[in-house]
Amino acid sequence: MNQWEVFVMDVAELAEDTDLELTIRTLNPGVQKYTYKRVKAQVSSALDKFADQLQVRLGRGQLSKARFSIKVLEEIQRCPAKYL
Amino acid sequence: MSKINAPKSNREFVEACLKSGDAVRIKQEVDWDLEAGAIVRRVCELGESAPFMEKIKDYPGFSYFGAPLSTYRRMAISLGMDPASSLPEIGKEYLKRTNSEPIAPVVIDRKDAPCKENILLGDDVDLCKLPVPLVHDGDGGRYVGTWHAVVTRHPVRGDVNWGMYRQMMWDGRTMSGAVFPFSDLGKTLTEYYLPRGEGCPFATAIGLSPLAAMAACAPSPIPEPELVSMLSGEPARLVKCETNDLEVPADAEIILEGVILPDYKVEEGPFGEYTGYRTSPRDFRVTFRVNAITYRNNATMTISNMGTPQDEGQMLRSFSLGLELEKLLRSQGIPITGVYMHPRSTHHMMIVGVKPTYSGIASQIAHLAFGSKLGPWFHMVMVVDDKTDIYNWDEVYHAFCTRCHPENGIHIYKNTVGTPLYPFATPHERKYSIGSKVLFDCLWPVDWDPVNDVPTTVSFKNVYSKEIQDQVTSNWTAYGYPPVK
């Protein structure tokens, strides 16, 4: 199980049962902690629906009480290939 | 000029602070994930000694030095002065050195540069190999740059800029940062690189000598490599980067090299800021792609933890911003006694003492200050007379509350340049760096009769003769009072 975190202005941005494009950061322990990925994912307020867990922070870093399970469908590379 | 004995590197500075009792050596392991940041924050709020953290979780061989310049004692040490020097003495020394003859830096051979002891290129480049701290709980990421210099050069004018633009680690090769459009780097990007779609070479130097950090933080018109040389009284040692033509401080602990991308942005923030709040929203900001990392053996990463007063963001910026504004006003012949920005104002209020020799002098001061390139960084100017001690907040506050006419003494300037970091600004104003300013004119009007219209200040030093004052002070302990320090 992986732990992820997302920043949103409003928890309503995390619509369930639909493919979302999100910027999430890993909360897994280790030196990679807090690094980001852009992903396509689905989230659910049913914490046992998906294997990974998602924690939510609001605009100024406030930790939301809302919790989700999340399934990362694929990683999206936004950075132009010429820079990779 | 007599020899200046200022620390030439962060290492020399740490040693000097340990020796004078202005730093504490922490031997137990400290976690980069919030613990180090919390230590530094508490140190700032208590005005304590700087923490030198020797053992970092997950990062053997690295160390942290926190709150490097969050006290005037450490600022004095950084200048090679007696730690007990007063703020006016430190300010006088800064003005003396920065008004002296320019001193050019020297470029040394890379084999002599400590920052080249370890070099990571290509697939080896990974910011996660550095002990980048999560400074505040709730920050948008781990901040690589909190006390550092981002080195760039204007491609046409050749101007070199060292600026302290915060940088967040987005992934192992990518950082994002807050670069405001009115800043030197912001202008270089918007004038040149962004319209052409070209990448801007950059280098980030971390673990600088304290005077190099001071130069990076100071809003001086003197190019920073010369400014640090003038502050230390000898040429700064620079060395060429591995992947671009920029020159960086050779004695810095860690150097990151790369390119600011013109056509790709990632999210940055939120972050605990010098105002004492987390104000600017998370947004897509300037993005840095890292192509090389070089660092010293047993490198020390410097950490500033900005928040409520007082940390070096407020101390040093208030100090240097105030003194650069003093230079500006003196260059225009304004008969000022000095300029002071109290750190607790988070350098938002400029206090100016002036001999009120003509009408409208406070407005002239405000126009010059707000209209300068330093203007976006503060929004309040308070002008008091030459008899008010600008360093004594009790006197300044008394002058403000009693001499500033509610209608005639308060002047508001609308639609000026602001920063997205102003906590009081509306979301719209933050997004577009729109500011507003205010002048508090605390001078008696010059058209008042000085004898019959101007109120007399009723104080011990003002209403009693010298003889009576001497009589009372010489008998003070005889009256039964403790000596006045």
Briefly characterize the structure:
The complex is a heterodimer of chains A (84) and B (485). Chain A has 84 residues and is mainly β.
Question: What are the low-pLDDT stretches of chain B, counting only 5+ consecutive residues below 50?
Answer: none
Measured as a percent range, the helix fraction of chain B is: 25-40%
Query: CATH superfamily membership of the largest domain in chain B, which one?
Result: Electron Transport, Fmn-binding Protein, Chain A
Strand-pairing-aware structural class of chain A:
mainly beta
| Main pleated-sheet profile of chain A | 5 strands, mixed, barrel
Report the β-strand fraction of chain A as a percent range. Answer: over 45%
Tell me the greatest interface.
A-B, 21 and 30 residues
Our count of domains of chain A comes out at 1
> What is the alpha-carbon Rg of chain A in Å?
13 Å
Rg result of chain B: 24 Å
Q: Can you give the mean pLDDT of chain B?
A: 96
The CATH topology of the largest domain in chain B is given as Pnp Oxidase, Chain A
Helix and strand succession of chain A?
EEEEE
- Sheet-strand content of chain B, in percent, reads 15-25%
Description:
The complex is a heterodimer of chains A (84) and B (485). With 84 residues, chain A is mainly β. Chain A has one domain. Chain A has no helices and five strands. In chain A, a hairpin with a 5-residue loop joins β4 (52-57) and β5 (63-75). Chain A is globular. Chain B is of the alpha+beta class and 485 residues long. Helix content of chain B is 27%, strand content 24%. Chain B has helices at 10-20, 35-46, 72-78, 87-98, 184-196, 210-217, 224-232, 312-331, 361-371, 393-403, 427-431, 460-463, 466-474, and strands at residues 23-26, 50-53, 63-66, 106-107, 118-121, 142-145, 148-153, 160-163, 167-171, 174-177, 200-206, 237-240, 247-249, 254-260, 266-268, 283-295, 300-303, 336-340, 349-354, 380-385, 410-417, 434-441. In chain B, α9 links the parallel β19 (349-354) and β20 (380-385). At the A-B interface, loops of A face β9 of B.
